[in-house]
Design brief:
- The chain is an alpha+beta fold and 363 residues long.
- It has 2 domains: 13-153, no CATH class; 202-359, no CATH class.
- It is built from 13 helices and 12 strands.
- The protein has helices spanning 13-16, 35-50, 92-100, 104-107, 116-120, 162-178, 185-198, 244-254, 262-265, 269-279, 303-322, 327-333, 350-359; strands spanning 22-27, 57-62, 72-78, 81-87, 133-136, 146-148, 151-153, 202-215, 218-232, 237-239, 336-338, 341-344.
- The strands form 4 sheets. It has a 5-stranded mixed β-sheet with strand order 2-1-3-4-5, covered by helices on one side. Strands 8-9-10 form a 3-stranded antiparallel β-sheet.
- Strand 1, helix 2 and strand 2 form a beta-alpha-beta unit.
- Helix 8 (244-254) packs across helix 11 (303-322) and helix 11 (303-322) packs across helix 12.
- It is flat and about 75 Å long.
- The relative contact order is 0.12.
Length: 363
């Protein structure tokens, strides 16, 4: 049975501000890190090692709400928007599966997924009827937290979309007219032009460079370089330093406009064939991996899954290293997703997909 009790006035506002990519244990500010906190952290790292997961940071956060002490939280993107997951020991494994984009039903069948020292000392369990609470982080007015009609809402975050931005502009003009502020169209246009020239924007740049080589006495064209960079609106380039395998996986994901869930990559012959054709043409391409099949008959994750996940981490690191740890650019241009949200390169365009298909001879 779930032990999670949401405070009557909703979750603390600071919870809405937690970053993606972290698993956070909520603690009593008067006690700090306790033995239970340590045991929870050890469990998370234990499961991560077994599932070859390196994409996480474990942290603690003191909160005043006593009902939340000992709970574990994380932030994920879903088809229903951004959500905070809140779990107790009975639902922690399921929360971690959502966080890493794994299949909970399959993971829970792994015989030793719960370490013996948790079983014998009444620690983490496979939850049964207990599931993580999903708390939506909704777009709206910053700083508002409520629990109306049984629906919990966190501090509101901005929902970035063209339609939402137009609504904000319209609202601003209503304020101008309602309060009688003497702001002229010329002033508005001047602000527009100033922001247009000072705000940095970024795009993805893929350059495939060919050269003629002699092979078996016959000159043929081969790819000499495949350079991938981010370019800002001032023309500055930020090269992404990746090895051939990571680069090939990256270009393959770009081809899938709507993305793929990680379960859809496993055993996907089309994905692997596209990857192979790209990888085989990469300069300095060595040790092509076996087919991307992530499950064995015992419902465990294969070695290929760990290697594949490492390549996704390498892509993220390449973007962060090139841009001074700009997390916005990682979200937009790395291969990102989770169990409920397809993995894809959000900042890629149809032009990029056409270029990759043309240069690598893909149908």
């Amino acid at each position: 049975m779930s032990t999670i009790k949401i405070p009557q006035n909703g979750l603390p506002q600071e919870i809405a501000k937690i970053p993606f990519g972290q698993v956070i244990v909520l603690t009593d500010p008067n006690q700090g890190i306790t033995s239970k906190t340590i045991k929870t952290v050890e469990f998370i790292h234990s499961v991560a090692r077994k599932l070859n997961q390196k994409r996480h940071i474990v942290n603690s956060l003191p909160v005043d709400a006593a009902d939340l002490w000992g709970c574990v939280i994380c932030k994920v993107k879903t088809d229903d928007g951004v959500q905070i997951l809140v779990s107790d020991w009975d639902s922690l494994l399921e929360m971690l599966c959502v966080f890493w984009g794994l299949d909970y039903e399959e993971i829970s069948k792994i015989p030793d997924i719960i370490p013996g020292w948790h079983k014998t000392h009444k620690g983490v369990t496979i939850g049964g009827e207990s599931h993580p609470l999903r708390v939506p982080v909704q777009a709206g007015t910053p700083g508002y937290t409520s629990k109306d009609d049984g629906r919990i809402t966190l501090e509101y975050l901005t929902n970035h979309s063209r339609e939402k931005t137009i609504q904000d502009i319209r609202s601003t003009f209503k304020d101008i007219f309602s309060y009688g502020w003497d702001i002229t169209p010329e002033e508005v246009l001047k602000i527009f032009e100033e922001e247009k020239t000072t705000t940095k924007t970024y795009s993805l740049d893929i350059q495939v460079i060919w050269k003629e080589v002699i092979e078996k006495v016959k000159p043929i064209q081969k790819i000499h370089k495949c350079n991938i960079s981010l370019v800002d609106n001032e023309g500055n380039k930020y090269p992404l330093k990746m090895k051939a395998q990571s680069k090939a996986i990256y270009l393959t994901f770009i081809l899938y406009k709507e993305g793929l869930r990680i379960q859809e990559v496993s055993g996907n012959k089309e994905f692997y064939n596209l990857f192979s054709k790209i990888f085989d043409q990469m300069p300095r391409a060595l040790d092509k991996p076996d087919s991307f099949v992530f499950f064995d008959k015992k419902y465990n994750y294969t070695k290929e899954y760990g290697l594949f996940n490492d390549k996704l981490n390498n892509i993220r690191k390449a973007i962060l290293n090139a841009t001074g740890n700009n997390d916005y650019l990682r979200e937009r241009f790395a291969v990102e997703g989770d169990m409920s949200f397809p993995y894809k390169v959000a900042g890629a365009t149809d032009e990029h997909r056409a270029l990759i298909r043309k240069e690598f001879g893909l149908k």
